[in-house]
């Protein structure tokens, strides 16, 4: 710990937020690298290639509608909306950081998905006959998923980092994600359709560890901007609702065709509905006068979707989904009330969006629920074929049984936590270097350092409105005089 | 009527808006009840169960793509967006009730859909072999539809009730809806794909009756907050547009596979387009200087979608859809201009969102259009098989002919009106009890009683009143003097 | 040019913005005309008609899921969102023109799609056996596409025209579009899945030419309103993101079933991701202090989707898409920085939204990329059948080869430019007539002439900000004093 502290002292840096060289440099270099790597490695798979018509005949596929595109494209678009509008607008709640919330979310997601296509492609979609990665719609969904992990981490450091730091956070985050995912899904053979472990647990702890490494003892200097205004809370509800509504698509996007997607959507729909009620209940119960807190409504209502991610494709049963949502609404809201202040004060983790309550904890719960549900699976409930299909007990895993699967699920969860914390500390070290143009402690949660703001806003709205809108200045003057006399 | 008046006097209640006990209690009790009832009754249907793979073989279904999920999931998600973003944001037009509009809409929809799955399940999806309700994607859509009826009713009482009252309104609303729907669709054998009768007419009159029962003679005390501001009108347009765009999905979501869904989407698309033009025309024509009124654009443009709900799956013909939309744009806009003030003044019905013009009247028109279109159906237009499929002339109804179907449609419409008015009066009686923590007459249309507002915002209202409505001049004057001295 | 000038002088008109007669008249007359024309011409096609069940048997279609509805409906709804929310909210960036942006966009799109169904129907969907246009889901998508051309043109004249002028712009725009499209796609046999040429190039030059004809030398009188405020920029990001996310659906909506739609979606997804990074890079690099400009983020990030429109269905390869996006982000952002001011100053083209940088230039690039990609196609890459399918080398075109196809693509691009410029000048002449109730030079970019505005907003903002946001009270006080002395 002393080592960390001295490293912190070493990095006592002067604050210069001018990213005019570094940001364009990073964007250009990385985008050119992407073009070269895509040129070398990435091609269409047989369902997106013009050879599809021949492939169809060869594989005896009766209709174009059985192209995977039609199974997954609607879910893909919903996931896409969650990534860009959902995550982006959810973070607009701060009164003066809406440009950064939506804009940097946009930037790192657009970069991240390219890098994710490569990283995940090498692990999962490499065609060994020609050394090319063959991509189709499922790869796009997985790339969006991969990006989600980094956007979750962004939530912890929202308003306290520069766009260059975010690009670095994303580069490493995607890399770590792809490795962790390969270990969990392929080597350990855990199932994680909605990514409770792979996405949310990893992303949550990754972000929290980075935030811990970047701890700012004097952050209260920016406390006047670390809150919402009425309008920004309404904007944030756009993010909340699109995440909430499309979460069934998120959890069902890459599950098995047919019953797998169908069941995952139903389970998620129910878990989320249940979460809303307990979130409202706890929010009201723990507030003086019983008033609801927008922070809880914006965030905790989503916890059920996270927590049902792993088990959504299993036979969790409708009431099981409701129970998971019920518990998560309570735990997540209590987390916002008690745990977030505690972590900031005693653990020195400043978690702007409360991702611990929305992603990390519900992700953990999701991993545990998944392990239990898997371990409890029986042939009488799933059917003989259903059990094999659902848990993919084929090939080298054909001798697995539900109880061992439960153990593998738990192992997967541990891997996700380790990668999140370990990776976060490592990347946090890098991000502490005094070269990243991050804002000073008294200039956090502010769009001003990185965005050209509309003129009048920078000076004084009242005067500007006064001068601009008022064609009839005399009337106003008169009004003002009247008021004062 | 004297009895109603004396009941009103009896309920002359002190106003306490602290819901700290009642709201959590209702949420917890009802959610736990849901879990128990779901545990006892609800299971996946054969298309969402892991036995699907065996079912497929047994039923000789050639591909996973024929799982009902793929026919309906895109429409389901569109409907889901309408319920949560569409209805929620449409009601954000009030200057200080955006949290309540979006937040309470969220709460009651999330509760309502669970209760709807049970209520509708008992009537429509009960498997008599094991006494379980078997749910799939179509049940989720129907649950969302059912919720829509209650959200419509919310529009009439927006800003004047507590969240606890809304939960009660929803509990009874869903129950009444399910019974009414069963009578109309199954016993009477009326067709109502888009729910002109079942959803909009019922929901509209249900809400209006409740609003009548909850009449507030001194509501003008809150008149300073019963209007929009520039930003809130733009937020409301988000709701309008998502409702407008996705209405074709709403009306086609549960129609027959193939041509049924296809035709319903086309008809709705056209009716809505036509409505926009006549709404703009009437709005401009009846306003001094020809200026457009945002209230009309936000609401009346949607009337065509309501009015084409019943007939959307019939051979209404493209021009028929345009005519329906044409008339509804005119009627609905005139309703806002003349009928809403009339109803408030003479019928003592305070209709915050004007649901009479957007849902009740267009719903009535939709029911009538449906009856006429059904009665006018001929084998030459529909084809022999087409007629049977479209009107479902099978089983006990195989001897029905279009003219009798027209009569049944009309009967269905009457049932919807009766349930709406009767149910609304009954529930209104319950909601008048002085136990629900609703706001006082001078505190309506205000988020303050039920929401923690961002600090700084709480200072605004006096100033706001000052310049416009001049309520408490003294406070403001003092403020100004202080600033300048 | 002298003739144009004298025409301009002739049209030195008094400004009266009262549209109380003209707007309702246009709306009613045109909507009634639509009803009559639809009655005479438009019917459902065999996939939306109740005869589908018989058609299915006759054509030996094995399942309802092969109805074109299920191939295209999800994409259709995404395109629909782009048209109404995407284009509408993208234009809300102006501080006082949000009602006009969203509302007039809504109006002209709703009218335009009806007229487009007719115009495109006569060219493409006329059933010669009975003289009727048979419509299905693909016609709805094409109607939305057709409308997009006019909405692009609206961007150039945003805030400077009356709703009546917009209706005229749309009527002629749709007409020109349908003719141009028929020439390019059917006569010249160019391919243009995403409409780089047909939609964006045409729409862009159509709008620019109209704006040139309507040049306002004294527009700087409205310069105080020709900018954004913080909130309006966030609203505009809603438009940007929905356009960005759903552009893969736009470019793939009417491509071939199976691999065609699949590939077009992938290519567009990648091009757009690449564009974001170079837009950010250039925006930061060319701004003092390296701050990002919201105008660039809102607009230039979309240029990649435009530029990949034509080639999206070809074997452009993933790296090809990235390269196209890379270049367009640079060119489009530089356009905003250098070209827009240049065009306003020297070419007398006032382009409110910068459609030249977002649509016209990227559209040109898209046409060129399409021509090159087509000319470079080989049987070894596409496969024998794939080549024929992709370029539709059938019927009268069965002897075409890729190189000639490349030439035809280039010819198509020229036609689009000619129609855009020629049509724009013609329609611009009409719109210069002093009868359209457009706003005076000092009243542009203002909702006030055509919309009933919420009362208080015109007075509040100063007070509101004054009491809450102002840290530096002294400045304000001084200002206030200045005003009052």
Instruction: Give the biggest beta sheet of chain A.
Output: 3 strands, mixed
CATH class of chain A: Mainly Alpha
Strand proportion of chain A: under 5%
| Percent helix of chain A | 55-70%
Rg result of chain A: 24 Å
Number of strands of chain A: 4
**CATH superfamily annotation of chain A:** Ammonium transporter AmtB like domains
Amino- and carboxy-terminal Cα gap of chain A: 64 Å
Protein name (chains A, B, C): Rh family, C glycoprotein b
Function (chains A, B, C): Functions as an ammonia transporter. May play a role in the elimination of ammonia in the gill.
GO molecular function (chains A, B, C): ammonium channel activity
Subcellular location (chains A, B, C): Cell membrane
Structural write-up:
The structure is a homotrimer of 485-residue chains. Chain A is built from 20 helices and 4 strands. With 485 residues, chain A is mainly alpha-helical. Chain A has one domain: Ammonium transporter AmtB like domains (Ammonium transporter fold, Orthogonal Bundle). In chain A, strands 1-3-2 form a 3-stranded mixed sheet. Chains in contact: A-B, A-C, B-C. Chains A, B, C: One of its GO terms (molecular function) is ammonium channel activity. Chains A, B, C: This is Rh family, C glycoprotein b. Chains A, B, C: It is found in: Cell membrane.
